[in-house]
Every structure is written in structure tokens, then in C-alpha cells.
Amino acid sequence: MSRPQCPRCLRPTTHCLCALIPSLDSRTRVLLLQHPSEVNHALNTARLAALGLLNAQLVVGEVFEDLPALLNPPGYQARLLFPAEDAQPLQAYSPSDLPLLLVVPDGTWRKARKLLHLNPLLAALPRVTLAAGAVSRYRLRKAPGPGALSTVEAIVQALQVLEAPQSFEPLLRPFEALIEGQIAAMGEEVFQRNHGGD
Fold first, then answer.
1. Are 168 and 156 within 8 A, CB to CB?
2. Angstrom distance (rounded) from CA 98 to CA 25
3. Residues 164, 139, 4, CA angle at the centre, nearest 5°?
4. Separation of alpha carbons 120 and 123, rounded Å
5. What is the CATH code of the structural domain delimited by 23-196?
6. Where are the domains of the chain?
7. Please, are residues 120 and 64 in contact by the beta-carbon 8 Å criterion?
8. What is Dmax (Cα atoms) for the chain?
9. Which residues contact 107 (CB under 8 A, 6 or more apart)?
10. Mapping DSSP to helix (H, G, I), strand (E, B) and coil, where does residue 180 land?
11. What residues contact residue 121 under an 8 Å CB cut-off, 6+ apart?
12. Boundaries of each DTW domain copy (predicted)?
């Protein structure tokens, strides 16, 4: 017997996050390419990001047949937010800059790399990266290394740089409520034992 689910945020209706999801406009267009294994993940942060940004689109799949169209919306230049040797650090727009279509693969690192492998057009995009040393608020998992952020955190950080001084912090409110809810459900003692210390 499954619990009733909110059709928008896909959370159980008793834990619906919709009241916390903002409606933010951005000059940047965000395209989230989500690996199918992430769709039913309890902490589906890509969905939260897509719901909270007016200029965002979430597409689920492994091979994206319509990628040429997705990567070429008129008036934008596509960049892949993914680490690489030649990735350029994001910088604030100057008034004459064409806005970015920020393409964000969503999945574990292994699944995200698989999306790039299966979609050569994606892998061929110029890459951009975030400033080093960001600390994740995602206290429920061990990050694979410094600067490993959840999808919504990476998007917020990218937009804060590109569109300064506009703040995209409100996008993190449902994410933080989600984490607090998970911690409350497992109990403080279990949380401390499993996630409290290094």
C-alpha cells in the first residue's frame, strides 16, 4: 500500500514541499538531464531545482533523441556544468554576454559520466565549473570529495556567480527541509552515528 503522493513535488502528501518551493526567474536557462535511476530517489534535488526556476527544464532519460533541439534554444549558448581539465570557471555576465543554457547532468558521478558517454553531443559541449572548495549542506551522504555538491546546490552556486547580486538561496529551502525531515525520521542518535563525524 503506497502512501498518497503530491503530484508536483512527488513527496508523500504528509511531507509535501510545495509551500517552500520558490518561483525564481533567471537570465540563465537551466537544462537538467536526469538519469532514470534518480527519479524516485527520496532526495530528488534536480526536481526541486526545476520546480523552483521558471527558466528550467527537466528531461529524464539515458539517450536523448531530441538533444540537438534541447541544446540550441534561440538566444542562448550551451555550456555543460561538469568537471574537466579544460573547464572554464563560471563568471558573472557582462551586459553584452549571451546568456547561458546551463546543461546539468543529474545522477551519481558514474551515472552522469554514462550520460555523457551515451550522448556524444553532450560530451562535446564546452564545460564550465564552480569555484573550488564549496561545502555541501547535504549532511546525509558522504561526499566523494571537496566541492561535491547535490544538483540543486550546484545550480544555486552557478546562478549566484552568473547573475550576481541576485540571490538564488530560496531554492535551497525545500532541500534543507527535506534533509531535516530525513534526519528527524532516522532519529538524532542514528544520524550522529552514521553521519555526525568523519
1. yes
2. 16
3. 95
4. 5
5. 3.40.1280
6. 23-196
7. no
8. 55
9. 34, 35, 37, 38, 114, 115
10. helix
11. 67, 68, 71
12. 2-187
Q: Is the peptide bond before 144 cis (omega within 30 degrees of 0)?
A: no
As to burial, measured by CB atoms within 10 angstroms (0-12 exposed, 13-18 middle, 19+ buried), residue 107 is buried
Peptide bond into 165 cis (omega under 30): yes
pLDDT at 140: 52
Partners of 32 in the beta sheet? Answer: 58, 104
Distance from C-alpha of 157 to C-alpha of 2, rounded to nearest angstrom: 35
The string of DSSP codes covering 183-196 is: HHHH-HHHHIIIII
Q: Write down the residue that cell numbers 541544446 correspond to.
A: 71
Report yes or no: 105 and 115 within 8 Å, Cβ to Cβ: yes
- Which grid coordinates are listed for 100? 547561458
Tens of pLDDT along the chain (198 residues)? 577 889 999 888 988 999 999 999 999 999 999 999 998 877 789 999 999 999 999 999 999 999 999 999 999 999 999 999 999 999 999 989 999 999 999 998 899 999 999 999 999 999 999 987 666 666 555 444 545 688 999 999 999 999 999 999 999 999 999 888 877 777 666 656 665 544
